Amino acid sequence: MKRRDILKHLSAIPLVGAIPHEDFLKKLKPRGGTLAETIEAGEKIYDSIGVDTIINCRGTFTILGGSVERPEVSTAMEAATGYFVQYDELAYGIGQRLADLTECEWGMVSAGCAAGLKHFTAACVTGGNPEKLIRIPDLTGFEKTEVIIPRQSRNAYDHAVRNIGITVITVETPEELAAAINQRTAMIYIVTGPSNDKGQPLSLEVIAEIAKPHGIPILADAAAEDLTIPPVHLARGATVVAYSGGKAICGPQCAGLLLGKKDILMAAWQASSPHHGPGRDNKVGKEEMMGMLAAVEAWIARDHKAEWQQWLSWLDHIDQKLTTISGVSSEITQPKGLSNHAPVLHIKWDADKLNLTGEEVAEEVARNKPRLAIGSRTNDNMTSINITPNQMQPGNAEVVAERLHGILSRSNKAKPAALKAAQANLTGHWDLEINYFTENSHHKLFIHQDGNWINGTHQTDFSSVELIGMIEGDDIKMKSNFRKPGDNIAFLFTGKASDDKLTGSILLGEYLTAKFTAKRMEYSHNKKPIFIPGGPPLAT
Fold first, then answer.
1. Selection from 384, 318, 396, 398 nearest residue 354 by Cα
2. Three-state DSSP class for 288?
3. Distances (CA, A) of 159 to 64, 163, 282, 307
4. Hey, is 152 helix, strand or coil?
5. How far apart are alpha carbons 273 and 486 in whole angstroms?
6. How far apart (Å, rounded) are the C-alpha atoms in residues 219 and 63?
7. Domain segments of the chain: what residues?
């Protein structure tokens, strides 16, 4: 197996980098000036605390800042500050205006889309009864305690649903859905997408047909979708549809939008801040509430066709620059659904001919100025990077084109055909100590080494998962994934190895980093003979 292939399996390193967290913090060097001195200077406000800005060619990822707020949003938020209002009155005024704008019964602004999912779930469990609300997450004695989620809708965001204390019932077919509905069913939650499009076995239409006779509300999570007016998923059978404010709608990053049935949204508002209870920790300010309303108004007035043409012109500029390089080709793909609705430019080449993979390009531009966030992929010998333009800003395309042209057009040395010989034999059983921020956790590694390649098992706190990796000289890289429905934690190990000790850092993806030390477990040499009786015991 080639080095490139094994590195692909060990995963490209995300933007935070495979360095210990405290070392990462040391790299943040303020470059002068207080906020008051730099606030008028654009990106220098981040520079003043040692943080680089990044050209966003990935889309509306929260970890990059989501979307750029529309000017109308910033203006509304600024206008809303400096005054005081009663929040229930504010919510009612916004709720009615959103209803008028979007042609639905009612609207609500939450502290992000995930908070909206949580508040809706609370509403379905309590029915607006405050005595029940303040008991959450202890649902003892509640009539409604279960939420049905189709398997293909299980995702990391359903933590917001589970935070209420409900029991998730996972189904895969219409028959399973029908059988799962009972007197304890509080709601059905889906993430809108291909698995529940019209015509699919468990489409939203099918779900609604099964659920509505029982009076079961349906929540459609359309966080990254374009807003449709009236909301298309309500017409398809959803009770309420939830959007992120900080994605396609380009509202406040910390706001969410719920549209649909008024009675259940009133119960959801009761479950949210400023009202005490399990939603008090999801505070949305008056500025974000007015900013979200302004974003919806702006959405209706925006020239979406002109925006699309602007995006295509940026991609065309980058495309024209990069495809002048021998061996580089391109393709622009168009989105098929409402979610993450933007064209994407794919730049492709033969990794063996350029001695470079898409993952390596993405890593280089992620770490070095001017920093870019781009996607990457490698299949067999063909590799690629991809560029999504919907959060790029004027002037970005020229920077991106020059940056990528410089990398793809340079001469890259061919990588050695063979890896350096391993300096240690790691086959065996290892006691692994992981040092998290305030806790040390004890895991186990069961390793089989074949030359440079590592395979085995990583026994975590709660599971046993496959381990793969490589050793080159005394450098090790290993990867395991802890998975459960809706969640995934990648353990990416990098460090040094000897015959009896492993040390280094673990990149935990979005969960930051940890340090590790592993020591070979020594077995006692007990050479006593083992007696096995010839039948069942005669005494116990």
1. 384
2. helix
3. 21, 6, 14, 34
4. helix
5. 26
6. 25
7. 3-65+304-408, 71-301, 428-520
Please tell me the predicted confidence (pLDDT) of residue 192. 98
Instruction: Confirm if 187 and 208 have CB atoms less than 8 A apart.
Output: no
CA 292, CA 257: separation in Å to the nearest integer? 8
Q: Which ranges of the chain have pLDDT less than 70?
A: 1-41
pTM: 0.91
Condensed to tens digits (0 to 9), the pLDDT of residues 363-373 reads 999 999 999 99
- Please calculate the CA angle 256-136-511 and round it to the nearest 5 degrees: 55
81 and 127 Cβ atoms separated by less than 8 Å: no
What pLDDT is attached to residue 3? Answer: 42
Distance CA 412, CA 61 (A): 31
In this prediction, residue 17 carries a pLDDT of 41
Cα-based angle 346, 351, 355 (whole degrees, multiple of 5): 130
Which spans in 27-112 are helix H? 35-38, 44-47, 71-80, 87-102
pLDDT for res 522: 85
Residue 433, phi then psi, degrees to nearest 5 = -110, 125
Class of the CATH domain delimited by 3-65+304-408 = alpha beta
Tell me phi and psi for residue 528, to 5 degrees: -75, 140
Q: What is the pLDDT of residue 417?
A: 83
Assign domain 428-520 to its CATH architecture.
Answer: Beta Barrel (2.40)
pLDDT at position 4? 43
Using CA atoms, how far apart are residues 510 and 488, in angstroms rounded to an integer? 10
245-248 contact pairs (CB < 8 A, 24+): 245/109, 245/112, 245/113, 245/288, 245/291, 245/292, 245/295, 246/60, 246/62, 246/66, 246/67, 246/69, 246/112, 247/60, 247/66, 247/67, 247/223, 248/60, 248/67, 248/224, 248/340, 248/341, 248/390
Bond preceding residue 217 cis, omega within 30 of 0? no
SS3 call for 257: strand
Domain 71-301 fold: Aspartate Aminotransferase; domain 2 (3.40.640)
d(C-alpha 184, C-alpha 246), whole Å: 34
